[in-house]
């Protein structure tokens, strides 16, 4: 039997999804599982989006332009202008999810064996995209003790080699919720200009910033010119993760041309969804204001509950809807598994995402988990209380391989 390619073999499973079979088993046993492991929001999509899908106004679903429907791209130009991001419709390539925007950027900018520097912990699927494109991710570590801010620039500089093509950031950050300051972004800009690199900025959580923080875009940066690449998605903005729409935005003509040609090879992004997304752009600003209020309330509730759990270290995030939490266990994955296989409180348990898979450096994040604020306040509180009871029971339980009973 012929074997798989090295790529096929190396393609990593999603660490967020790998405990799913255990959650399914728990459910089969009648246990209710509170899913705070995955970024699937429970927020309703804007009515405008749903209405457009209900009545698409067409009897066929045709292919569309490979870079996206012009009507949708024109709408996006207005959308970005609301944030002071000035781009033209031919500087946008609509993609099948933000995922494809990142893959297109990797494919167009890096040859197999080239390197992309990325602060860790990072959105775990960057690993999969890197394997697909043959790119090596080179991590620089952000520490929970430092609130996950960027380490000194020298830490990035020392990672630059002749194979480095880009620095990839996620702002606001998944999984940490960190929001980069203007100064940090300007320092990154200076570095990429000086060292002749691209700055890729995944900004899919742009709307979700709290406490007066502002999410600055890579395309706000004066002098970034052709080096800035904005990677975006509507999955979280409008709670339409299944619509599979994102985009790549840049002023770099060569990159736009390559992204268009990559787009032509897969013909087009979903057309009905683009029409619906165009309509969603007309949703009243109150829609997103309410969503933001809801996420803020959930974050605050989670942090109130976490404050009551002994031995936990967490930094209140200013953006996105996640937090990375250090738990008083040695092996957070073993604990996350145990919560699903061996623990319940009145027929309920909680599913959390072990954070090791969000780091590229082996051994980091072993005692951390990511929590997503994707359930309403009462359920988030309940989930955190179950987590607290779980920790108490686990640490009181006899020691098991890979873990110890005390902190
Ligand atoms: C930081 C980040 N980038 C990209 C994506 C992928 O988004 P999409 O659903 O549009 O492919 C996600 C999804 O969770 C994400 O969190």
Summary of the model, kept short:
By secondary structure, this protein is α/β, with parallel strands linked by helices. The protein is built from 13 helices and 13 strands. A seven-stranded mixed sheet has the order 2-8-7-6-5-3-4, sandwiched between helices. Strands 9-10-13-12 form a four-stranded antiparallel sheet.
Task: Report the end-to-end length measured between terminal Cα atoms.
Answer: 49 Å
Mean pLDDT: 95
The arrangement of helices and strands along the chain is HHEHHEHEHEHEHEEEHHHEEHEEEH
**Rounded Rg:** 21 Å
Hetero groups bound? pyridoxal-5'-phosphate
State the shape: globular
- What's the CATH H-level homologous superfamily of the largest domain? Type I PLP-dependent aspartate aminotransferase-like (Major domain)
Outline the structure in words:
The longest helix has 23 residues. The chain is α/β, with parallel strands linked by helices and 407 residues long. It has 13 helices and 13 strands. Strands 2-8-7-6-5-3-4 form a seven-stranded mixed sheet, with helices on both faces. A four-stranded antiparallel sheet has the order 9-10-13-12. It has a two-stranded parallel ribbon with strand order 1-11. The protein starts with 5 loop residues before the first helix and ends in an 11-residue tail after the last helix. It has two domains: 150 residues, Aspartate Aminotransferase, domain 1, CATH 3.90.1150; 234 residues, Type I PLP-dependent aspartate aminotransferase-like (Major domain) (Aspartate Aminotransferase, domain 2). β9 and β10 form a beta hairpin. 37% of the residues lie in helices and 15% in strands. The C terminus is likely disordered. α3 runs antiparallel to α10, α4 packs parallel to α10 and α5 crosses α6. The site of pyridoxal-5'-phosphate has 13 residues, from α5.
């Amino acid at each position: 039997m012929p074997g798989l390619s090295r790529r096929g073999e190396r393609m990593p499973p999603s660490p967020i999804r790998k405990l799913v079979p255990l959650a399914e088993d728990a459910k089969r046993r009648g246990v209710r599982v509170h899913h705070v492991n995955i970024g699937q929001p429970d927020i309703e999509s804007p009515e405008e989006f749903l209405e457009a899908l209900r009545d698409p106004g067409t009897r066929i679903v045709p292919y569309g332009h490979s870079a996206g429907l012009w009507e949708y791209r024109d709408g996006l130009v207005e959308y970005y202008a609301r944030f002071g991001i000035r781009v033209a419709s031919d500087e946008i390539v609509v993609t099948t999810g933000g995922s494809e925007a990142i893959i297109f950027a990797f494919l167009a900018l890096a040859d197999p064996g080239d390197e992309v520097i990325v602060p860790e912990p990072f959105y775990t699927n960057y690993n999969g995209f890197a394997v697909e494109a043959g790119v090596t991710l080179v991590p620089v570590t952000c520490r929970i003790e430092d609130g996950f801010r960027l380490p000194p620039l020298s830490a990035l500089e020392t990672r630059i080699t002749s194979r480095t093509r880009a620095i990839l950031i996620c702002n606001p950050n998944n999984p940490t919720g960190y929001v980069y300051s203007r100064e940090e972004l300007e320092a990154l800009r200076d570095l990429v200009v000086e060292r002749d690199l691209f700055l890729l900025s995944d900004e899919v959580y742009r709307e979700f910033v709290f406490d007066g923080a502002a999410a600055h875009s890579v395309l706000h940066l004066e002098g970034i010119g052709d080096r800035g690449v904005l990677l975006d998605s509507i999955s979280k903005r409008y709670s339409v993760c299944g619509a599979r729409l994102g985009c790549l935005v840049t002023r770099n003509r060569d990159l736009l041309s390559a992204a268009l040609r990559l787009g032509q090879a897969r013909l087009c992004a979903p057309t009905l969804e683009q029409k619906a997304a165009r309509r969603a752009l007309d949703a009243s600003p109150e829609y997103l204001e309410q969503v933001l209020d809801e996420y803020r309330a959930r974050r605050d509730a989670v942090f109130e509950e976490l404050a009551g759990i002994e031995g936990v270290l967490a930094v209140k995030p200013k953006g996105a809807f996640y937090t990375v939490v250090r738990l008083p266990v040695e092996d957070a994955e073993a604990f996350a598994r145990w919560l699903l296989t061996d623990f319940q409180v009145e027929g309920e348990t909680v599913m959390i995402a072990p954070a090791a898979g969000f780091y590229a450096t082996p051994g980091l994040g072993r005692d951390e988990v990511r929590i997503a604020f994707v359930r309403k306040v009462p359920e988030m509180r309940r989930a955190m209380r179950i987590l607290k009871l779980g920790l108490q029971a686990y640490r009181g339980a006899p020691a098991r391989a890979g873990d110890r009973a005390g902190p």
